[in-house]
Specification:
This protein has 272 residues and is an all-alpha fold. 75% of the residues lie in helices and 0% in strands. It has helices spanning 2-19, 26-37, 46-74, 81-111, 126-137, 146-174, 181-210, 221-232, 241-271. The radius of gyration is 19 Å and the shape is globular.
């Protein structure tokens, strides 16, 4: 949640870019939002972003940390990358399912400003969004795009958490870097880049699905992804790469460094 407060404007820009059918410059988009909607719009949907982290990230990091602790208590050796990937994927999919309602609200609130005034949803906050979605579209609409969200979460968490753990281990053992914030920073920067590149096709797909108006049947993840590639070009699956990296990179660094510090603090507290 602390990381989200810092990088939320890039989430707004990323979601706006992913909803554009044609090419759009990040700088022109920033200028448009600032001139037409005001600087406060860069923080539209912040309540949804915070609730998403409070649910999705709490679950995924909690499960991942517990799985690692469980492994260490019963094994002498460190887990292999395959084991770390299985842990991260399981944690990510579970967390994504729990966090999908907030994710739906986040996508809609951050992209609302691009719609004509008469078509805007005008959610006041994340809880108002939940209430209106349930009232007009039904409770299951809160989990619209959950398959794409969970698929993205598996990719994100394997790329982010498993890669982070493996890179941190390699840097520490091969380069003799001590267990400090510097080590956490190096590992999380590598993790953030891989996470951005691997997750973007799933990210743009879930954004498009979650922003759809109420329909009788939600299209499948692969169908939407193939449609984007066919009609807009395969490069469109990585549309908004740099604002996404500018969000995920610092978010990964802040989240994992803060997580490491909290875990260290809690372990010391427990040992006392």
């Amino acid at each position: 949640m602390a990381a989200t407060c810092v990088v939320h404007p890039m989430d707004v820009i990323k979601n706006r870019m992913q909803m554009q059918k044609g090419k759009v410059s990040i700088w022109s988009l920033i200028g448009t939002i600032y001139s037409k909607e005001g600087v406060a719009k860069f923080y539209s949907g912040l309540t949804a972003g915070l609730v998403r982290q409070a649910t999705y990230t709490t679950v995924r990091l909690g499960i991942y940390n517990q799985m690692q602790d469980f492994w260490r208590q019963r094994r002498v050796s460190s887990p292999s990358f395959g084991v770390l990937a299985l842990m991260a994927g399981t944690a990510g999919a579970t967390g994504a399912f729990v966090g999908t309602p907030a994710d739906v609200a986040l996508v809609r609130m951050t992209t609302d400003g691009r719609l004509p005034i008469e078509q805007r949803r005008n959610y006041r906050n994340v809880f108002d969004a939940f209430e209106k979605i349930i009232k007009t579209e039904g409770v299951f609409a809160l989990w619209r795009g959950s398959t794409a969200t969970m698929a993205r979460a598996v990719v994100v968490n394997v790329s982010q958490l498993a890669t982070y753990s493996q890179v941190k281990y390699l840097i520490a053992t091969r380069l003799n870097v001590p267990e400090t914030i510097a080590l956490h920073f190096y590992a999380s920067m590598v993790s953030g880049f891989l996470t951005t590149f691997n997750s973007m096709p799933f990210d743009i797909t879930k954004t498009r699905i979650q922003n759809m108006k109420s329909t009788s049947k939600t299209p499948g993840t692969i169908a939407v992804m193939m449609s984007i590639a066919k009609t807009e070009g395969i490069g469109s699956l990585w549309k908004g790469f740099w604002p996404t990296y500018c969000r995920i990179g610092p978010h990964t660094v802040l989240t994992l460094v803060i997580n490491e510090q909290l875990m260290h603090f809690l372990r010391e507290l427990y040992e006392r």
